[in-house]
Design goal:
Number of helices: 9
Structural class: alpha+beta
Order of helices and strands: HHEEEHEEHHEHEHEHEEHEEEE
Largest sheet: 8 strands, mixed
Distance between the termini: 30 Å
Strand content: 25-35%
Length: about 300
Amino acid sequence: MLDNVLDFIRATEEAAIAASKWVGTGEKVKADEAATEAMIRRFGKIDFAGRVAIGEGKKDKSAGLFFGDRVGKLKGKVSANEELELAVDPIDGTRPTVTSGPEALSVVALAEPGSLLSTDVYYMNKLAYGPEIKNKVVLKLTDPIEHTIRLISATTGKDFSKIMVCLLDRPRHESIVKELRKLGVRIKLIQDCDISGAIATCLPESGIDLLCGVGGAPEGVITACAMKCLQGGFQAQLADKEGKVQDLKVYGIDEIVSGHCVFAATGITNGSLLRGVRYTSLGPVTNSVIMRSKSGTVRWVTAHHGN
């Protein structure tokens, strides 16, 4: 079923179109509800059975797809060990959606049965980097940030002043921002949507070398799937909202997603990864990306939807 990847991009497209109708309205709850309903509706038209291993919603007390939810046209008709596992967020970036901010996406990751890390912890401490770095040096999430930056500099040949680090603009990251500035590296602070920031480390034209810091756990599992498809590096620890690590264990990418996986995303608002939904006289236009870890295929899709 993971071979029929284009079926799943239709789920993120429909969720993104539904969410786009609430751009700039300030109505977070209604935007979440619209995107979630659209995604579930499309899943119900696809010949598969899926179970949510980790999802958004409960943390924000909003609409969403939660742990254990079952979706797909074949739900209830196959055994549990035949169900694909999902990590899903109908809107990654509800706030930028309803405030007309950047980088909002509709995202879903699917994996073979028993492949995805499932946790009721809401946050993860993360480290993401592209294949150029992964294939040449061993980075460790627990290393001091100065040591990590020195390794990146030696590996890429970049001076500290040309290295770009991306992280969420949160009070919990004040100390690391202060240290990065002391080192003289460039910093990209983002308000939301660290999935895009992590993926950007695998895209040389983005200029981003590293993503670090604490963000959502569902987004972390989704990110791991994307990074596996892109052959990038990803590590994580479970943490709380303030950034305190809950478990000393560091999860590598193959522990977060152990089998083959698929990642799909559609832009809701304009971002560095994807353009947002645009409306024309012929109907909405969406921009998406879909990836497969098994083949390493990455497809960029522009779709024109009728009125």
